[in-house]
Amino acid sequence: MISFRGQTYALDDPVVIAVLAGAGLVLLLFVLIIATMRAAARSARMADPILNQMQMLGGRVQSLSDGQHQLSGGLTHVSEAQAASQARMLALMEQRLADVSRGMSESLHGTATRTARSLGELQQRLETIDKAQANIEKLSGDVLSLQDILSNKQTRGAFGEIQLNDIVRKALPADAYTMQATLSNGKRADCLIHLPNPPGPIVIDSKFPLESYEALRRATNNAETIEAQRMLRIAVRGHIKAISERYILEGETADGALMFLPSEAVYAELHANFPEIVRDGFAAKVWIVSPTTCMATLNTMRAILKDARMREQAGAIRRELALLHGDVDRLGTRVESLDRHFHQAAKDIEDIKISSDKAARRAKRLDNFDFEELAPDPEVSVAVPLPRA
Predict the structure, then answer these.
(1) Res. 240: pLDDT tops 80
(2) What is the dihedral of CA 184, 186, 188, 192, to 10 degrees?
(3) What is the gyration radius of the CA atoms in the chain, in angstroms?
(4) What pTM does this model have?
């Protein structure tokens, strides 16, 4: 390594090699000059041509020295340019490193944010799953409770009564029915609809032959099916007979009653596979209804109640119309009388106006001292009688 003017150059640098070669050549020239000058001391005469050559050689050496100085300046410029380039390279690398670091920081921050959001969404989904699981467990408990209710005859009857109450309350006004009405024979009906005569009040009683129906659904062979059908016939016919005997009272209720089945499945089974039971109900004047057909029947009853109430009010409406007609007649008479009074008052006002004009003319003549004989008025002034009240 060679240090020159504060700059360090490597020995294998081509520029350094060129400079060293030039310096060696200059040194060799100086050696030759010294040898030549020694030879000139011996031969002065022969030195003139040599001196001329030496001067030329000196000029060339001077040119080489100038070139060396220029080469040195060039090396300095190259060194300064290389240093500036290195500085710019370092600055660029630092900027790139800063950009990469900032990008990595932003990427890590975004990843952390997305991860936190994903964890939050996962937590919400887990909470939703927990709620669904709780609802499923609650629903399972409700199903078990419903099975417990339907397994007991008393609670099953209460279930049917509550369903009947809900349907009747939605279909009819509150004063059109009575729940748990007691009849004259001491029997209590689930619902009594207050229909007008005819047909009269009609009873709706809730029945639910669930055991025999479930036995029919569980039957796996012909013998079990036949036995379950027999049980269902006995149960439904027993209900029909009980309703016919308890809730159809002559002179108190209609000549028929409704048996409410709170199950569309049982109702469909009877009409599909047990038409003789339905005919038995018709014969006993006990009509079997399901929740759907009960709502349709109650809507028909509501129309009957509305028509009956309108007929009840028809007499009162006619009486009110007669009174209204009399009031209109009296109003017409009084209007005619008032009109006559208006005509008489207008005539009286006209007469008063004429008298007022005459009085004004007389006052004007007196004011002008016109004592000439006044011409008689075409009309004799008479007192105008005022109308009596």
Answers:
(1) yes
(2) 0
(3) 66
(4) 0.42
| Alpha-carbon torsion, ordered 135, 140, 142, 147, to 10 deg | 170
Number of H helices, E strands in the chain: 8, 7
197 close to 251: Cβ distance less than 8 angstroms: no
Mean pLDDT of 212-222: 83
The tokens describing 368, both together, are 């002008």
**Residue 80 and residue 295: Cα distance in Å, rounded?**
105
User: Hey, which residues does 3 pair with through a beta bridge?
Assistant: 8
How many angstroms separate the Cα of 39 from the Cα of each of 52, 61, 161, 185?
A: 14, 20, 152, 173
Count CB neighbours of 267 within 10 A.
20
- What pLDDT digit, counting tens, does each position of 37-59 carry? 776 666 655 556 666 777 787 77
User: How many beta carbons lie within 10 A of that of residue 380, not counting itself?
Assistant: 6
Distance CA 81, CA 245 (A): 124
DSSP annotation string for 53-103: HHHHHHHHHHHHHHHHHHHHHHHHHHHHHHHHHHHHHHHHHHHHHHHHHHH
Give the integer Cα–Cα distance in Å for 246 and 260.
Answer: 15
Cα 149 → chain centroid: 38
Amino acid at site 163: Q
Burial of 60 (0-12, 13-18, 19+ CB in 10 A): exposed
Beta carbons of 383 and 351 less than 8 angstroms apart: no
